[in-house]
Design brief:
The complex is a heterodimer of chains A (about 260) and B (about 500).
Chain A: E1 4-13, E2 16-26, E3 31-35, H1 42-50, E4 55-64, E5 67-68, H2 74-80, E6 82-85, E7 92-96, H3 97-111, H4 119-130, H5 137-140, E8 143-144, H6 150-164, E9 168-172, H7 180-192, E10 199-204, H8 209-212, E11 217-222, E12 225-230, H9 232-241, H10 251-259
Parallel strand pairs in A: 3-10, 3-11, 6-9, 9-10
Antiparallel strand pairs in A: 1-2, 1-4, 4-5, 7-8, 11-12
Chain B: H1 2-18, H2 24-40, H3 56-60, H4 66-69, H5 75-78, H6 93-99, H7 106-111, H8 113-120, H9 131-138, E1 144-148, E2 151-152, E3 166-170, H10 171-177, H11 179-185, H12 196-203, E4 208-213, E5 223-229, E6 236-237, E7 240-245, E8 250-259, E9 268-277, E10 282-290, E11 296-305, E12 310-317, E13 322-331, E14 337-346, E15 351-360, E16 366-375, E17 380-389, E18 397-406, E19 412-421, E20 427-436, H13 439-446, H14 452-468, H15 475-487, H16 491-497
Parallel strand pairs in B: 1-5, 4-7, 5-8, 6-9, 7-9, 8-10, 9-11, 10-12, 11-13, 12-14, 13-15, 14-16, 15-17, 16-18, 17-19, 18-20
Antiparallel strand pairs in B: 1-2, 3-4
Classes of the chains: A alpha/beta (about 260), B alpha/beta (about 500).
Chain lengths: ~260, ~500
């Protein structure tokens, strides 16, 4: 059975239609890449799946594990196994990174009827998982993302994912803004978390990420629809020919257009 | 308003008649207090200093001093003891009915939500009588004086372990034994002529404490004054605390005010603290106000700082239908340093009022001020901070911050910084803000599986942390954290929000 099924999903933000009929099916163990120029609706899809406020679903449905996802609160989605790695991780001064993550893990364990981890056991777990993304212990004791560099924030996202062990991870532009060393580290962490039970959706603007995380399927999004799906070779072709090859403006030049909301094909 | 004033004038006159054998100087102080109260009247919203304060809980209740509120009998029998004669117990009827076993009507029960929470909380014993358990929970290691319903409770107090050079005395004893010292101290900092409630406190001067530090005395353990009100009689408590710190001495003083939730009735605490810091002396002052939610609390702290002295005030206001927290610090010698921190956390219809005044009268003094408010439901918080830099006070360095977090649509915060700068070579900065929980942060936490109520609690704690963590780690911080935990949005609210 599919882990995630998206059927004819339409959504709007502030009265503006952004998603115009998305269909997507992710099975356990699969890694899907969703590519597309800025403004194509990639991040909106991620936000709708995670349950961010301000997005109105006007048509279609989303099933997670065969059950309707959209009626769940963000915390219920997280607890049922959906994880969003944020494009822009939020800085939360005054809330310790480790305390935050232990609270989250224990909230999820509570719902699942599992025993909560005490501070010592959790610290052990956190230390082990942090090695995956080479996150220094000093970061774990600071406030959530406060004063972190771009790369540290993205590594912190993958670290959280490693601790929470979701069944579906949606990585929203986790690669953008990273230099090559940071990208390798983040990709290494993500690869280590690939498993036959876990599905992943990588949302990215750049093909470069896919040199490090090899996807099973690639989708190209434009103007709120998936216009092309294929294997890894689709990404390579895109890399070679640019978005213009599919009748799309290249990423850079569409930025301006995308601010108006609509990308013309 | 007039009738409330008449009531307190009556109360003071009866008190003076009862204590006719008091020393002449004390009679003078009390009479002056009465005269000043009569001259000024009780404040109203027309007074600039009380413009934002909801005085209804104060004028609505008719409070009586400890000697009248339940008869002058010893504390042990007081709970079952004599009631005030009808002629003196005006306004005390709700308490009397409650005592007879009538259940609290639903409306009042809502108002008393704070009480209910407190009873379920960590520091309130289930039974009525066992105050020693409260003292064990709220008390700190070290010497302490405990007051119950405005009266010293010697059996709960402890004066053992006083460091050399430190004198701690109940005011009652000091009034008898140290007349000359007290005559010079009372009303030195807190002027009855400028404050109606200080005048009322002076008119009823009897209970409180004297803390003296000989020059060079270092007190490692905190001195604690614990004021408990039981809420089963309409008590007016009027403690006066006098602190004299000799040159280069250093001490920590903790004033804790707590409602212990025996009865649902309102009480009125009207406290005045006067501090004189000698040259190079240092005082860490903590005020933990966790009165019952039906209580009225008015507290004024006045400090005069000598040369190179250091004063740090940490004022936590959590309880009371009406809470007024005043801190007045005046620099009398160069090189002084003052830190005024405050955290006020309100819900229901609580009104939490903060008034600070820093008087930079001499050059080269530094002041740092940070007040934060967390307001939920229909609670209202106000901050009015005056910084006065007099013409001579060159090289003053002063910073003031007031930040408020509103947790509901109906909560309200008023921030009023007031800078009067009459010198030209000074650094003065101030800022004020009122905001809500960050929606992005809230979503981030929830997206990791943290339920909304818990996420709100985490963010609220984070907001308050700056003030809490300004208290050095140790028993005082632990008490603050314990009391704060009872006030934050949490599990009790989860069903309401879901």
């Amino acid at each position: 059975m599919a882990l995630l099924t998206v059927r004819n999903l339409h959504a709007r933000v502030a009265g503006k239609d952004i998603l115009k009929g998305i269909d997507l099916e992710v099975r356990p163990g699969e890694v899907h890449a969703i590519m597309g120029p800025n403004g194509s609706g990639k991040s909106t899809l991620a936000s709708v799946l995670a349950g961010r406020d301000g997005y109105e679903v006007t048509q279609g449905e989303v099933l997670f594990d065969g059950k309707p996802l959209l009626e769940l609160s963000p915390e219920e989605r997280a607890t049922s196994g959906v994880f969003l790695a944020f494009q822009y991780p939020v800085e939360i001064p005054g809330v310790g990174n480790l305390h935050f993550l232990r609270t989250a893990l224990n909230a999820q364990r509570r719902v699942k009827g599992l025993e909560e981890l005490d501070a010592m056991d959790f610290l052990q777990l956190a230390k082990e998982k942090s090695k995956l993304v080479q996150l220094d212990a000093a970061f774990m004791n600071r406030s959530v993302n406060e004063g972190f560099s771009g790369g540290e924030k993205k590594r912190n996202e993958v670290f959280q994912m490693a601790v929470l062990e979701p069944r579906l991870a949606i990585l929203d532009e986790t690669d953008s803004g990273l230099d090559i060393d940071a990208l390798r580290t983040v990709a290494g962490g993500v690869n280590a978390l690939r498993s036959p039970e876990r599905g992943m959706v990588l949302i990215t603007h750049y093909q470069r990420l896919l040199d490090y995380i090899v996807p099973d399927k690639v989708h190209v999004m434009a103007a709120g629809r998936i216009i092309r799906s294929g294997g890894r070779e689709l990404a390579l072709e895109l890399e070679e020919k640019g978005y213009g090859w599919l009748g799309l403006e290249s990423g850079k030049s569409t930025t301006v257009v995308a601010k108006g909301g609509e990308v013309r094909r | 308003m007039t009738s409330a004033l008449a009531h307190y004038l009556d109360v003071a006159q009866r008190f003076h008649a009862r204590d006719a054998s008091a020393p002449a100087w004390l009679k003078r102080v009390r009479a002056e207090g009465l005269a000043q109260l009569e001259r000024q009247g009780l404040p109203s919203n027309r007074d600039e200093a009380w413009k934002y304060t909801n005085l209804a809980p104060l004028v609505g209740g008719t409070f009586l001093p400890p000697g009248e509120a339940r008869g002058a009998g010893p504390l042990a029998t007081a709970v079952e003891g004599t009631f005030v004669p009808p002629s003196e117990a005006r306004g005390a009827s709700p308490v009397a009915t409650a005592m007879e076993g009538t259940l609290i009507p639903p409306g009042q029960a809502l108002v008393a939500r704070g009480l209910a929470t407190a009873v379920e909380g960590t520091f309130i014993p289930p039974g009525a009588g066992d105050l020693s358990a409260v003292v064990a929970r709220l008390g700190l290691p070290g010497p302490r004086l405990v007051f119950v319903d405005g009266r010293l409770a010697p059996e709960l107090s402890s004066l053992s372990g006083l460091p050399r050079g430190l004198t701690l005395k109940p005011l009652r004893d000091a009034l008898r034994e140290d007349g000359e010292t007290l005559e010079a101290l009372v009303g030195q900092r807190a002027l009855a002529s400028e404050h109606a409630f200080t005048a009322l406190n002076a008119a009823l001067l009897e209970e409180g404490a004297l803390l003296r530090l000989a020059p060079g005395t270092l007190s490692e353990v905190p001195v604690q004054l614990l004021f408990l009100t039981r809420g089963d009689a309409p008590v007016l408590a009027s403690p006066r605390i006098l602190v004299v710190a000799g040159e280069s001495s250093e001490a920590t003083l903790v004033e804790t005010y707590a409602g212990v939730g025996v009865g649902p009735g309102a009480t009125f605490t009207n406290a005045v603290t006067e501090v004189t810091l000698g040259d190079n002396a240092s005082l860490h002052h903590y005020k933990l106000q966790a009165e019952a939610d039906a209580a009225v609390h008015v507290g004024a702290l006045h400090v005069r700082q000598g040369r190179d002295s250091r004063f740090a005030s940490h004022a936590f206001s959590f309880g009371g239908a009406l809470s007024r927290n005043e801190v007045h610090a005046a620099f009398a010698g160069e090189g002084g340093d003052a830190t005024l921190n405050g955290l006020y956390v309100g819900r229901g219809t609580q009104h939490l009022d903060n008034r600070t005044a820093l008087d930079h009268a001499v050059p080269r003094c530094t002041s740092r001020e940070l007040y934060k408010g967390v307001l939920d439901d229909k609670a209202r918080g106000t901050f009015h901070g005056l910084i006065r830099v007099r013409p001579d006070a060159q090289r003053t360095d002063s910073r003031q911050q007031n930040r408020n977090l509103l947790l509901s649509e109906s909560a309200q915060a008023d921030a009023r910084p007031q800078l009067e700068i009459l010198a030209d070579d000074v650094k003065c900065a101030h800022g004020a803000a009122v905001g809500r929980l960050d929606a992005q942060a809230l979503f981030y936490l929830r997206s990791r599986g943290i339920p909304q109520a818990e996420a709100e609690r985490l963010l609220t704690q984070a907001f308050a942390r700056e003030v809490v963590e300004a208290v050095p780690a140790g028993p005082v911080r632990e008490r603050v954290e314990g009391l704060l935990a009872l006030k934050l949005p949490g599990s009790a609210r989860r069903e309401v929000r879901a």
